[in-house]
Amino acid sequence: FQRMERATRHAPLSSLQGVASYNLAQAWGRTGKRLEALQMFDQAIENFSRFQRRKELGMAWLAKANLLLRMHLYPEAHEAYHRAAYFLRKNHFHGDALLGEAISVSVLQGPEYARPLLERIAGSSQERNVIKFKARGNLGTVLRQLGEHSDAIRHLQTALESQVDVPPLTVAAVLSELT
């Protein structure tokens, strides 16, 4: 970490400083230093914004949103996912930001508000298979919470039938919803 911190402090005033801050934030987030990680994400976001690096800016917002969600800071996570989705509009990580936003909406406002967002993601022809799979699984969970059990089972089964290129742990999470 000391090398990464030095690189962050001594990087030339360019977007490289943002990359160094982003990498340090990711490392700190993985080791449990969440407050330090949030500070580094803020530095990375500021730097990427200054140098108009849209993709990197979107990725920094997305990573920060994921960390905020793990910290159960749902309003902040929702805002960060919203910003990530804006900056990642033409990127294949756009679906990740939309999915995170839908999950935070479900927590903040209730499953009935997340349902249309998840339906749109699950039905999109532009999203990656793993994102559609996760959206269908989350949609099944939302429908179960709303008492629509037959629709929930249908969406969960559709998710399982379409599990192309989906990590086994993600499949296991959907399977657990069926029981």
Description:
This protein has 10 helices and no strands. It has 179 residues and is mainly α. The N and C termini lie far apart (43 Å). The longest helix is centred in the N-terminal third of the chain and has 17 residues, at 34-50.
What's the overall average pLDDT, rounded?
85
Can you write the helix and strand succession as a string?
HHHHHHHHHH
Helix share bin: over 70%
Number of distinct helices: 10
Keywords:
179 residues, mainly alpha, 10 helices, 0% strand, elongated
Task: Tell me the layout of helices and strands.
Elements: H1 2-10, H2 15-30, H3 34-50, H4 54-70, H5 74-87, H6 94-109, H7 111-123, H8 129-145, H9 149-161, H10 168-178
Helix pairs in contact: 1-2, 2-3, 2-4, 3-4, 4-5, 4-6, 5-6, 6-7, 6-8, 7-8, 8-9, 8-10, 9-10
Short description:
The chain has about 180 residues and is mostly helical.
